[in-house]
Specification:
Blueprint (H helix, E strand, L loop, with lengths): L2 H17 L3 E2 L2 E2 L4 H26 L18 H5 L5 H10 L8 H20 L3 H22 L13 H8 L8 H21 L4 H13 L3 H8 L6 H7 L1 H29 L3 H5 L8 H17 L5 H25 L4 H14 L35 H23 L9 H5 L7 H4 L6 H16 L11 H16 L3 H11 L16 H14 L2 H11 L4 H9 L4 H18 L9 H5 L18 H5 L29 H23 L8 H11 L7
Antiparallel strand pairs: 1-2
Helix pairs in contact: 1-2, 1-4, 2-5, 4-6, 5-8, 6-8, 6-9, 8-12, 11-12, 12-14, 12-15, 14-15, 14-16, 15-17, 16-17, 17-20, 17-22, 20-23, 21-24, 22-26, 25-26, 25-29, 26-30, 29-30
Length: about 700
Amino acid sequence: MTLGGEKCLRLSRLVDHCLHPFTEEDGVVLESKGKEKELLIALSHVVTEVQRWVREIDGDSDNEGIQMPNSHEKRSDEQDQSLESHHYMTKIVSELVPLLAFENKYVKHLVGNVLTAVTKFIFLTGNASDWCELVHSLCFSMELVLARIISSPAPSITGSENLDFYLSILQPKLKNANFSTVAGLLQVLRNTLKFLKQEQSDLIGELFDSVNSCLSKIPWDLLGRILTEKICNIVEVQSNDDACSDNLHQRQGLKFLFLGNFVQFLCSLAEPSDFEEASCGSFKSHPLLGTIINLIPNLFDWCLNNQVDHFDRCLSRYFSHKLLILMIRLSFHCHLQCSTLVLWLQLCRNCFQNLLLLPKLELESTADTSLEDSPLIVSYFGDKRSPCSLHLRRLAVFLFLRCSLSFICKQPTEKCDPSIAIKSQLIYTTTLESKCDDCTCSKKGVLELYKWLLGNLPTNIFLDTNMYAKNCTKFASSFLQLYMHEDDLLFKVLLQLLRLPSHTEPCSSEGPSQEVKEVILFHVSNIFDPQHMFHIFLKELNYDHEMLLDYLMSKDAGIYCLEYLLRCLHIINDSRHALGDSSTILDILTDSSGKRRKVMLNSSTISEERLSGSLNQSNETLPSFEDTGNYDYGYKPQRVGVESLKKSKNCLHSLKTSLENLHRENLFPYNPKVLIKRLTKFLELPMEIK
């Protein structure tokens, strides 16, 4: 027997010796509370031993130090060696997984620790085939449990030559398994994934394969019926039978436990890592990500649309947070189809409509709204300006902008494919999806941005030429303030806004509403003009170059801050004037006087009602105008004042000096030469004011 096989044999003997007295062929058997205490002791012994073996391998200790317990209950060597090495993994899983259905939370916690330690131990032994067998057994156990819950036939393992062995070993032991068992398995798989990412192991691909095989074979429509099953007439049931009511509440609690762990595991699968970037994005094209994307509508239905009132307040916040995080991560991992973006925008409108509205046009001081500990602190749930509410609002707005701008950046010839809604087994009847064959992605993106702006801005912003520039500035400023206390999202959203086409560039779609779309993009581009936003950003930092240094050196936000600064400086340097094309932000806020060019809007032909009318129309199309009036597409807001430009230049000059000093002393974490070069070019630009 090989060295890896001997270690697997030792591990199998340890688990069998310690836990076999507590199990039978049909699952867990506990005779008394005393027996429960003995189980806790046995599990503690197993996890301690396996963790000790892991430490010994990690420390390159002599593996002969791994000692096995002596017991008359050991199986004979002949029986042990009758199994192939990789089959020991399935036997170990069959002993441990049934215990995850146990009501005692300490038992479930220890079982999860044992399985996690076992996956680490097998990984460190260097036997990839045994490790793959272990993960495959965990995933197949999850399939078997879910099949039992929904009363469907046992799943098959495509291409496996050992199906009978898996079924004969695992199926009898999982007769008493439930949603708690699946939740425990998901937690073990999540811990295993985190460990693999830390080790930068190629076995991440094997884990993805096993998980995708599992998820793709689960009948989600049948499982969804069970997950969305309501607790009917609880009060009536409780008045008749308290025990029955408690049992119903327990069953519902197990469903939410499963859903919480499931969504959390999917978030971990979609989480990017340095190792995946180094592997040239090989995992970004894995079919598992497509499987997860197809599950998104189902997750919204299970997690947000079918909750019991008793759980709503806490769980809706948790699930909203996790689903937003999951969708944002997937949007960075994958090239999303137009149909997927359409569906996601609709889900955002249906479930996060309130979150898409900014708290106020002019936000109050947010000095006390920075995130502390978890953004989901229960005590904050009722406060609309709490860290939790603001965090969810940031995520929802960012996802909305990412999807909307993705439409605009797509090729105009790309048509929507409504098949995603069919694949996800959910039917959406809105006109936006049913007519997706007749409209381009660009039109949808412009429409969504237009409606979002009307929901956040005074409806006469596009008509009142005297207040136009000020309202645009106030909105951009309040928008940026929302993100100033969450660094990584701040730069991600700023980078996202850089994708907007310039208002001097024509919209690249065809049709009778071409001019209208250009007008809407014109307004959006004025509000989120790159130089405009860059100036607001510096002002929000009080022109503090040390804050910029902190951002650049941050582990989470550093790379995004660097990219944002480089791209903004490139735009400004190309304009040939330092912030010369920026808007009147500081002049407005400091009440400085000056002439402004006006947007040539013909208010006699474009009424406020017609601009906002599409929000109340059943057919979600762009507003049609018989006469769109005269729009000055050469409109440029007034340039900023001299004092504002001086503060900006002083800030960036100090940043350049600090970067040079730190780089000279080898104290900066990476080479900042490119940034220094662009800062130098910026500082050489004239501060022309017109």
